[in-house]
Specification:
The chain is α+β, with helices and mostly antiparallel strands. The protein has a domain at 9-54. Helix content is 18%, strand content 21%. It contains two helices and four strands. The structure holds zinc ion (ZN).
């Protein structure tokens, strides 16, 4: 069964919070898509760099691990 409701949930692309059209503090239309934000500051951040926030595959939890050369205390 399909439900169409006006208070659908959207994800704030900036902070990841789930907002609905009713709770969103701001919205922006970008590339024919509407994005909803929990706060004006999130909207401003998005507008400053939309592509950066829309890049889907951000590497989460994968910090660039530096391979430590090991503690080479070559003692004589
Ligand atoms: Zn937000």
């Amino acid at each position: 069964m399909k439900q169409r409701s006006n208070d659908m949930n959207y994800k704030d692309p900036v902070c990841g919070m789930v907002v609905s059209r009713l709770t969103a503090a701001a919205d922006v239309e970008y590339r024919r898509k509407t994005y909803y934000f929990c706060a004006q500051v999130c909207r401003d951040a998005f507008l400053a760099d939309p592509q950066g926030y829309l890049r889907a595959h951000r590497q989460h939890g994968m910090p660039p691990k530096k391979v430590s050369a090991g503690e080479y205390d070559a003692k004589p």
